[in-house]
Amino acid sequence: MPRTDALTPENVPPDSKPTLDTFTRNLGFTPNMMATFAKSPIAFNAWATLRGTLNKALDLKTREIIGLAVYEVNGCDYCLAVHSYAASMARLPADEIMLARKGHATDPKRDAAAQFAYKIIKSRGQVSEADLKAVRDAGYSDANLIEIVALVAMFSLANFFNNVFNPENDYPAVTAAGPI
Fold first, then answer.
1. Where is this region: Disordered (predicted)?
2. Which string of b and e fits 66-93 if b means at least 16 CB within 10 Å?
3. 5 has pLDDT over 80
4. Hey, where are the domains in the chain?
């Protein structure tokens, strides 16, 4: 059960309205998470700006795979549902989506990014030299590593928000990933 009410169109704070309207226009509806997050124009707009900027990092499939690994570790059912759907729209097959939730991918380069993101979130950033070497050896630059760290942080912000406020889910629920 949601822990706070989502906004209705008539009570969106003026400073959140342009950002929320953009999401609504792009998605074709207003997700409950965003209608709740928009209660704080400062936090909502900061997250939306970070999200929009990080959408330029890496490629879509790699970002979705990283996100799924983070969502699974953080136990965010809302984001798992949303992004399992988004990953399927990005043409990731169901078995690849489940693999991503466990911090892996079938493509070797994406697998290195997924494993690195998984290690970041599980260890709270306390990764080893070997972890850095593995992701670099897969072809990622230091700039890419920074982008992966930023993606983990941005995805985690959404997870923490959803885990605290528990907005009603707009997407089909996903099944448990099993042991990680």
1. 1-20
2. bbbbbbbbbebbbbbbbbbebbeeeebe
3. no
4. 15-54, 60-165
Reply yes or no on whether the pLDDT at 180 is more than 60: no
pLDDT above 90: residue 172 = no
* Tokens linked to 128: 């080893």
Domain 60-165 has CATH 1.20.1290.10: yes
Chain mean pLDDT for the chain: 93
pLDDT at 179: 60
pLDDT score for 178 = 64
